[in-house]
Write a structure and sequence with these properties.
This protein is of the alpha/beta class and 281 residues long. It is built from eight helices and seven strands; from the N terminus they run βαβαβαβαβαβαααβ. The protein is 46% helix and 12% strand. β2, α2 and β3 form a beta-alpha-beta unit. It is globular, with a radius of gyration of 18 Å. The protein starts with 26 loop residues before the first strand and ends in a 7-residue tail after the last strand. It binds nicotinamide-adenine-dinucleotide.
């Protein structure tokens, strides 16, 4: 199922990190990293010297180009694994494949996510199931599979990309809001179970970030209200995000890199909110 490139297997013993590359010798799995926020996070980790496993849906050739350019630009090992995050068996296979191919799994970023916008009375059952599976249960299955490897190495970073919708609700997003609140709870529960070790678990709660997931909502809003895309974009920001600006994927990548640093060693069970003031009012 997985595509690999020929490259030397990483040693299970971590060498001293080179200056400016503090995550050299570490291995990260970033789910949903073929697009948007996940790709920004994978790039930020690779820039710190971390080997990365990309994952997600999309065109095979475009993914391969991205994987290759990441590996070349950052001089790291980069792989792609096509595990479907709604399938626990494929999540387990992703982790064991990463360990056997790259030597360990030190960082996991549960980022894959899907959205569907509709009132609760007409919310499709299959969309409810899919959103809970990909946005919530996948993080449980990934954590469960990766944690024993982190414990064995005595270090780990578990990062869940939740949302402001893990803290507050909006209308017409019942499954997403439920899943993201669950993800914040999962983060706290795992953090407590790891608190006596060097493994931390945190959630990041972004407000609006301009990615394909949000572009679809802007297009739906423009269609339903008969307004232009730029007007729909402006309305979307004004309604919730007081800064009036989208968060950039690079800013979220930098936050993940910080959470992986030694400076963040005692940050655990926390929700890092990046929402332009959304939840301040
Ligand atoms: P996106 O649509 O650009 O990316 C989603 C990624 O998830 C893609 O790589 C996609 O292929 C992958 N994916 C979807 N279903 C999958 C499956 N079954 N198996 C494996 N991969 C799958 O969206 P994004 O905005 O970058 O979202 C990333 C995360 O950030 C999501 O969890 C989302 O809920 C969260 N988030 C986004 C925003 C925002 O404003 N964009 C705000 C808060 C939280």
């Amino acid at each position: 199922m997985a595509r690999t490139i020929a490259a030397p297997r990483a040693s299970t013993r971590r060498k001293r990190a080179a200056p400016g590359r503090p995550l050299a010798g570490r291995v990260a799995i970033v789910t949903g990293s073929t697009s948007g926020i996940g790709l920004g996070i994978a790039r930020a980790l690779a820039a710190q010297g971390c080997a990365v496993v990309l994952n997600g849906l999309g065109d095979g050739e475009a993914i391969e180009r991205e994987r290759e350019s990441l590996a070349r630009a950052e001089r790291v090992q980069a792989r792609y694994h096509p595990a479907d995050m709604s399938r626990p068996d494929q999540i387990r296979e992703l982790v064991s494949w990463a360990v056997s191919d790259l030597g360990s799994v030190d960082v996991i970023v549960s980022n894959a996510g899907v959205q569907h916008v509709a009132p609760v009375e007409s919310f499709p059952d299959d969309r409810w199931d899919a959103i809970l599976a990909v946005n919530l249960s996948a993080a449980f299955h990934l954590t469960k599979a990766a944690l024993p490897h982190m414990r064995q190495r005595g270090w780990g970073r578990i990062i869940n990309i939740a949302s402001v919708h893990g803290l507050v609700a909006s209308t017409n997003k019942v499954a997403y809001v439920t899943a993201k609140h669950g993800l914040v709870g999962l983060t706290k529960a795992v953090a407590l179970e790891c608190a006596d070790s060097a493994i931390t678990c945190n959630a990041i709660c972004p407000g609006w970030v301009r990615t394909p997931l949000v572009e679809a909502q802007i297009a739906q809003r423009a269609r339903e209200q008969g307004i232009s895309l730029s007007r729909a974009t402006e309305d979307l920001l004004c309604e919730k995000q007081p800064s009036g600006r989208f968060t950039e994927v690079e800013q979220l990548g930098a936050l993940v890199a910080f959470l992986c640093s030694d400076a963040a060693a005692n940050i655990t069970g926390a929700t890092q909110v990046v929402d332009g003031g959304w939840t301040a009012r």
